[in-house]
Amino acid sequence: MHGFAFSTEVRVRFAETDAQGIAHHASFVVWLEVARVAYLERHAGGYRAIRDKGIEALTTEVCLRYHRAAYFDETLTVWARCGDLRGARFTYEYRIERDGELVADGYSRHATVDRATYLPTRVPDWLAEAIATAEASSS
Amino acid sequence: MHGFAFSTEVRVRFAETDAQGIAHHASFVVWLEVARVAYLERHAGGYRAIRDKGIEALTTEVCLRYHRAAYFDETLTVWARCGDLRGARFTYEYRIERDGELVADGYSRHATVDRATYLPTRVPDWLAEAIATAEASSS
Amino acid sequence: MHGFAFSTEVRVRFAETDAQGIAHHASFVVWLEVARVAYLERHAGGYRAIRDKGIEALTTEVCLRYHRAAYFDETLTVWARCGDLRGARFTYEYRIERDGELVADGYSRHATVDRATYLPTRVPDWLAEAIATAEASSS
Amino acid sequence: MHGFAFSTEVRVRFAETDAQGIAHHASFVVWLEVARVAYLERHAGGYRAIRDKGIEALTTEVCLRYHRAAYFDETLTVWARCGDLRGARFTYEYRIERDGELVADGYSRHATVDRATYLPTRVPDWLAEAIATAEASSS
After folding, report:
1. 3-class SS at B58?
2. Rounded alpha-carbon distances, angstroms, from residue B23 to A72, B11, B55, D49
3. What are phi and psi of D49, to 5 degrees?
4. Interchain CB contact of B19 with D (< 8 Å)
5. Phi first, then psi: what are they for C50, rounded to 5°?
6. Got the DSSP string for B95-135?
7. How far does chain C reach from its first CA to its final CA, in angstroms?
8. Chains in touch with B (≥3 Cβ pairs < 8 A)
9. Residue B84 burial by CB count (10 A; 0-12/13-18/19+): exposed, middle or buried?
10. What is the largest CA-CA distance in chain A?
11. Spatial contact of B106 and B31, defined as CB atoms under 8 Å apart
């Protein structure tokens, strides 16, 4: 049991492969973002809604461990969960699988800022509550 | 004689290759942009200067013909020239070479818009003159 | 009536946007490829099947006209049709729409080569027939 | 004193920015690779030479902390050092600066495999020695 309730799927694009014949490792970083966007759409009205409310979420850290190569046209499942909300900061954890087999895992950290000033601003209560509800229902 | 006076160099990044073992065809579109930015830096105070003056240049068309494959770590020369300025529109032509051999050629069309309204706005005189001077000196 | 029978959808990723706040024009080139891969999967057993049979399809030309900007998180419909098969060459035409509105259109040209030698090789009959059948049923 | 002897420069491309108006965080992962390629060219005959000798270096982990945003057209200095060679594994550490100011730092881990079998293979002695010499001369 890996404890993730949310997942989304990505299909490896040919443009995301490299001359080693595998998905380039930077492509995975983009897939994590795709998963965050899908997560927020499911649980918090969407990332655009957050931006429309004057908040921008910056990425402050990303870490990925690659366990197996991924190949062109494969469908990967990106599991994601959000937590560790404190003030303006929160963390996502990820697990990327192919047919239940671990391909990569990692985490990213984020900070919310005011879109006008780019100064740190607390994660708004409605968003914190939406995430808390989402994660509570999954455990 | 191919009639280009300006060129810049790009080095093929590993991330720009694909599982065919060659530079992915979409990477070339980015290199054209790198060449435009370098061209404007040389001739018109830089693209940032243009943006700082409240103008945004949109890409309205791009066409590329690929004559030979490009490979990881190769140095390519991107020749570029600008012309056909009319109102809010202008065109770039390109020729990408490796050691004098044609790798790709093409063109892109652009339109200047006001950064605040995104409505079309004439290419400002100072920019049109800088480009005219640059191209006159090259012919 | 635009005469396309096949389409696939793409969702604009945040990583595909640029500092103009819109989808970067090179992202569209990748979406055309996503559409070709989906087209071949529907009609010809998939692009991987083609590669597994020792054939590689190179891109020899790509042209795109951008009519409207596309924005983060929008769902775009990429219409694609294949035709003009002659020897080792074929052409795709595209129309990218958002809610029925034209965002971009264009075409790409391709050549089939032998995966071992990278010499041109005729589009195999089974593939030509699969495409002919697909396009005949759509008209 | 940060203890790095090798650096290379990257210029932020417009295609590498996103709708937040800054360089997208996945772009940094590509820049680390650009730095590794430049490092190997300086110290070990180039990455292509390594591939030509039948060895492929896979990325098994990448971690980045983003301290400041980077913007279009900025020149960034990517400091890199290699170490921790054990069997088939080695590590790079990085520090990305703009005018001496820390923009991001991180590390990546790699494993060498045989290009034909993709099985782990020890880092060859000539490469280990080239790296040891490079790093010894820098401390």
Report:
1. strand
2. 16, 11, 32, 18
3. -60, -40
4. no
5. -65, -45
6. EEEETTEEEEEEEEEEEEEETTT--B-PPPHHHHHHHHHHH
7. 11
8. A, C, D
9. exposed
10. 46
11. no
Please tell me which of the candidates C14, C18, C21 has its beta carbon nearest to residue D15: C18
Asked if residues C110 and C58 have their Cβ atoms less than 8 Å apart, the reply is yes
Give pLDDT, residue B138: 66
A58-67 residue pLDDT tens: 999 999 999 9
Tell me which chain D residues have a C-beta less than 8 angstroms from the C-beta of A62: 25, 62-64
Residue C134 confidence (pLDDT) above 60: yes
Structure token pair of residue C119: 């010499």
Touching check for C29 and chain D: CB below 8 Å?
no
The Cα-based distances of B67 to A23, A29, B106, B131, C109 in angstroms read: 26, 32, 11, 29, 12
Measured between CB atoms, which of A13, A47, A72 is closest to C73? Answer: A47
Exposure string of D10-21, with b = 16+ CB inside 10 Å and e = fewer, is: bebbbbbbbbbe
* CB-based contact A133:A6 (threshold 8 Å): no
CB proximity list for A73: less than 8 A, separation 6 or greater: A11, A12, A14, C37, C46, C47, C48
pLDDT of residue B87: 92
Round to whole Å and give the CA distance between B50 and D23.
Answer: 19
pTM of the prediction?
Answer: 0.96
Between residues C12 and B126, the one the model is more confident about: C12
Please give chain B's pLDDT, 139 residues, in tens. Answer: 478 999 999 999 999 999 999 999 999 999 999 999 999 999 888 887 888 888 999 999 999 999 999 999 999 999 999 988 999 999 999 999 999 999 999 999 999 999 888 888 999 898 899 888 888 876 5
- Give CA separation, A29 vs A12, D6, D17, D105, in Å: 13, 26, 15, 16
Query: Sign of torsion, CA D31 D35 D36 D37?
Result: positive
Q: CB–CB of D63 and A63 under 8 A?
A: yes
Residues with Cβ within 8 Å of residue B128, at least 6 apart in sequence: B85
What is the chain C residue with the closest CA to D13? C18
> Closest Cα of chain D to C70: distance in Å?
12
DSSP codes joined into one string, A94-137: EEEEETTEEEEEEEEEEEEEETTT--B-PPPHHHHHHHHHHHHT
ipTM of this complex prediction, to 2 decimal places:
0.94
Using CA atoms, how far apart are residues A5 and A79, in angstroms rounded to an integer? 8
Q: How confident is the model at residue A138 (pLDDT cuts 50, 70, 90)?
A: low
Find the distance separating the first CA and the last CA of chain D, reported in whole Å: 11
